[in-house]
Amino acid sequence: DQQVKQNSPSLSVQEGRISILNCDYTNSMFDYFLWYKKYPAEGPTFLISISSIKDKNEDGRFTVFLNKSAKHLSLHIVPSQPGDSAVYFCAASASYAGGTSYGKLTFGQGTILTVHP
Amino acid sequence: EAQVTQNPRYLITVTGKKLTVTCSQNMNHEYMSWYRQDPGLGLRQIYYSMNVEVTDKGDVPEGYKVSRKEKRNFPLILESPSPNQTSLYFCASSLSGGQSRSPLHFGNGTRLTVT
Predict the structure, then answer these.
(1) Between β-strands B19-25 and B4-7, what pairing exists: parallel, antiparallel or unpaired?
(2) In this structure, are residues A19 and A84 in contact, taking their beta carbons and an 8 Å threshold?
(3) What ranges in chain A are assigned the alpha helix state H?
(4) Which pLDDT value is given to residue A56?
């Protein structure tokens, strides 16, 4: 049961244009969402996060949008740069899940972003 | 430099031969966790630890053991590895777990092949 889904395995974008990565979730208890970026031969690194009390969070070229009614979040990268080429994972957690869910992040499958010069 | 260090980076072994993947963090983090990454499945949690001597199962704990005798170390033990444990493994740590909103810091991964 995949509670966090990234339905696009890959995305190809031209340098300077916008990259939009999408993520859907099914668990209505999720109230905190994160994006991680992963280069080959490295571990994922934290990129940006958003709490469910917000619908938008911006950090430089990166903006995450949250649509709670649709259980959907997206990551916008503007403008895209070749160095942004990586695998992007979205992840979600629930504050009040308790028990074995404490501190647990549930990850999506990842989307490979390629930014062409 | 703040980091999570995993060893080895690459490991090829045979079915049934016990192995340990080490993980160490130098950030005094309370929370540590192991994940495996498989194509099409993303990152799935194997085990986690909220503090010394406190560990619990994640989503896919079968075939794995962990221990947390010291705050900085969180080794992953495969008592009798099988080919379905061939995967890319990541250790991660954070200040106090996902609910504190502190992001996870990941190691660079261990590529395990079991033949």
Answers:
(1) antiparallel
(2) yes
(3) none
(4) 97
Check A43 against B92: CB less than 8 A apart. Answer: yes
* Residue segments in chain A with a per-residue pLDDT below the cut of 70: 96-103
Question: B60 to chain A nearest CA, in Å?
Answer: 12
Whether B42 and A110 lie within 8 Å, measured CB to CB: yes
Q: Do A103 and B44 touch (CB under 8 A)?
A: no
CB spacing of A103 vs B99 below 8 angstroms: yes
pLDDT in tens, B53-92: 999 999 899 999 999 999 999 999 999 999 999 999 999 9
E-strand stretches of chain B: 4-7, 10-13, 19-25, 31-38, 42-51, 54-57, 65-66, 76-78, 87-94, 105-106, 110-114
Q: Among B18, B88, B92, which residue's Cα sits nearest to residue B48?
A: B92
Which residues of chain B from 47 to 76 reach within 8 Å of chain A, CB to CB?
A: 48, 50, 56-58
